[in-house]
Amino acid sequence: MSRLIQVDGAQGEGGGQVLRTALALSAVTGQGFEIARIRERRARPGLRPQHLAAVRAAALVCQAKVGGAYDGSPDLRFEPAALISGRFRFEIATAGAASLVLQTIVAPLAITAEGGQVEVTGGTHVPSSPSYHYLARHWAAVVARLGLRPRFELARAGFYPPGGGEIRAEVPPWPRPAALSLENRGALVEIIGTSGAGKIKGEVARRQADAAHERLWEARRLESRWEVLDVP
Predict the structure, then answer these.
(1) Strand extents, DSSP E, 95-213
(2) Which ranges of the chain have pLDDT less than 70?
(3) Which of 132, 171, 176, 198 would staple 115 via disulfide (CB 3.0–4.6 Å)?
(4) What are the backbone dihedrals phi and psi of residue 36, each rounded to the nearest 5 degrees, phi first?
(5) Listed residue (198, 197, 199, 200) closest to 228, CA to CA
């Protein structure tokens, strides 16, 4: 067995992305790791339900041995084995972001022979996390430049705090990974926004869009186009 890489979970911004990136890279490369000081500077440090869901998902698709996977744990040991394809379902008991679980396992599933189908329940539009629409429109467009082409479907919206939403993903095999350089931001071409509402329908979504349009113009003299939709 190769020596485990030591990861400082408090480095940089010190959030859950350090853990999720380590999980994804570990599953893809087969290299195990130990991570300490997980989310150390957060108000509620350590592993929370949404992070545990990502750990369980990554562990399942690469048949990993895991130590320290419990609520509030500051440390985790992750030793991957062989990747498997198939159909998977993962549940986040809270409104934790389903998108972040999917971002963790898309690449590992894509390098299997058959890819995979995934359903994740939890939050789909929650604070401080990428929404379903960001995942499906923006993140998917960026990873497509790597040759990764996951497809996402919003089965049911889940807002904070109850959650209860569901995102479905189809992950085809990734036969030819491509290089990607994102060193430069590039020039602003256009601002296109989406405003949606769940139980409170179109009128509120339209007011949100109008307010954002006005704010962008008042603050920066930026024009924007907005799509208003009802979220299922």
Answers:
(1) 116-122, 151-156, 165-171, 192-197
(2) 1, 201-202
(3) 171
(4) -120, 160
(5) 197
pLDDT value for 12: 86
pLDDT value of residue 210: 96
Q: Which pLDDT score, from 0 to 100, does residue 186 have?
A: 86
Kindly state the tokens that stand for 94.
């809270």
Side chain identity, residue 70 = Y
* Domain identity same for 170 and 197: no
| Residue 185 covered by a domain | no
Burial group, residue 30, by CB count within 10 angstroms (0-12, 13-18, 19+)? middle
For residue 130, the enclosing domain spans 85-177
Task: Report yes or no on 138 lying in a domain.
Answer: yes
Q: Of 66, 84, 102, at which residue does a domain stop?
A: 84
Nearest C-alpha neighbor of 35 from the set 93, 78, 81: 78
